[in-house]
Amino acid sequence: MKRIVILGSTGSIGTQALSVIEKNRDKFEVYALSAHSNIDLLLKQIKKFKPKKVALYSEIAADRLSKMVKHNGEVKILAGSKGLEDISSDRKADVILVAVTGINGLPSVMNALKNKICVALANKESLVSGGRFVVEQLRVSNGMIIPVDSEHSAIFQLLSKAEKSAVRRVVLTASGGPFRGKSLAQIKNANIKEVLKHPRWNMGKKVSVDSATMVNKAFEMIEAKWLFDLSSDRINVVIHPQAIVHSLIQLVDGSYIAHIGPTDMRAPIAYALSYPERLDNVIRDTHLSELEDITFEKVRYPFNRPLNIARHVIDYDNDMGIVFNAADEVAVELFLQNKISFGDIGKIIEYSIKHFKPSGIKTINDVLLFDMEIKTFIRKYVSERF
Fold this sequence. Notes:
Layout: E1 2-7, H1 12-22, E2 28-35, H2 39-49, E3 53-56, H3 59-69, E4 76-79, H4 80-88, E5 95-98, H5 105-114, E6 118-121, H6 124-141, E7 145-147, H7 150-159, E8 167-174, H8 184-187, H9 192-196, H10 205-213, H11 215-228, E9 235-239, E10 245-251, E11 256-260, H12 266-274, H13 304-315, H14 320-336, H15 342-355, H16 364-385
Parallel strand pairs: 1-2, 1-5, 2-3, 3-4, 5-6, 6-7, 8-9
Antiparallel strand pairs: 8-10, 10-11
């Protein structure tokens, strides 16, 4: 019986993880949950899964929840960053699923690794902004990270079947998002509804916007660098509209090995939670007839622009990932608030990359402070010029 902690239990990944656990009650126990402020859904999760601890980022929401659950069994309600630190450091947990969005997930990843808790990672920002610190802590603690992104889960599984010396490169697949084949002129004024209408995946708003800009795939390249120790020339990206091939590895003899399955995030979630075992009742079977049409395309302008930034981060300036992530977080936030256009997201990222030059980043706290500085500057810059 594995004790599971889920950070971000009310989000898309968190709710799907709980659906996997619900079908496998004999294998998993929900030990702790966290959410930002969605107490209505969190209360339902508490009643169903009876966790020992719950943390809410909002202290106001935590106070409200405390009053609502006082007659619903023994559950400890925690609040703010201290609450997250408590549940992400609790050694009674076997696996912590980090499914929050944004750089706020980074301290929890570090806490878990320091305490030798296996991390099921669904938070790109941790590695994009603090990858070198995460990898160093992973080495020092002899810890483990199991990727939850469908692409990295696929690569993780594929690499376990091949000798490292036999692998030439990894290939990340991208569906192309809602604007595949469109030019910048055609999409620069796309509205929120159009941007969030992903053709294949049902995701949260932030990752849906990132998918539409291809920043999501750029982040995945940086993740692959840290997870699998790869230079950018060993990481390729191709457009694969059917989203059935989740990623591939190319071997030195020129052949490829692919990971194939339905577009269902419960598969990589279940694998991360149950590793090294596999669950047999997670998703439907993939019928070979579904593979009749499989196509791959080159990533074309303007969607290759974020990928070029990622290559620079990987090969020349790892800490520039802090700038890349912070600029994207703020730009997406402002777009979802209708304060900038869709086309402005890329402009803000590229301006930030040129404006900020990371230096003196020696600790996780330095990462978080620099992130805050960048975001404050960008919000002021946008309020004055947009």
